[in-house]
Amino acid sequence: MTRATLEQIRPLVAELVEQKLLEILGDPDAGLKVTREVRARLRRKFRKNELRPAGEVARRLGLKW
Fold first, then answer.
1. Does residue 40 lie within any of the structural domains?
2. 61 lies in some domain
3. DSSP code of residue 5
4. If you average pLDDT over residues 50-64, what whole number do you get?
5. How many CB atoms lie within 10 A of CB 6?
């Protein structure tokens, strides 16, 4: 039988905690609709190339994603 290290267990525990919180609290944005104004603003930002994928932002900030 092999023993797991803390580094191996930590991501699993984090995922389980997140899943449980979502199960208990639910998604606070569920059922909300995006307004025309927000859609228009997002389109403008996409056209201006102002939006970046979250993974890219995390890398630029030196964060693990």
1. yes
2. yes
3. -
4. 87
5. 7
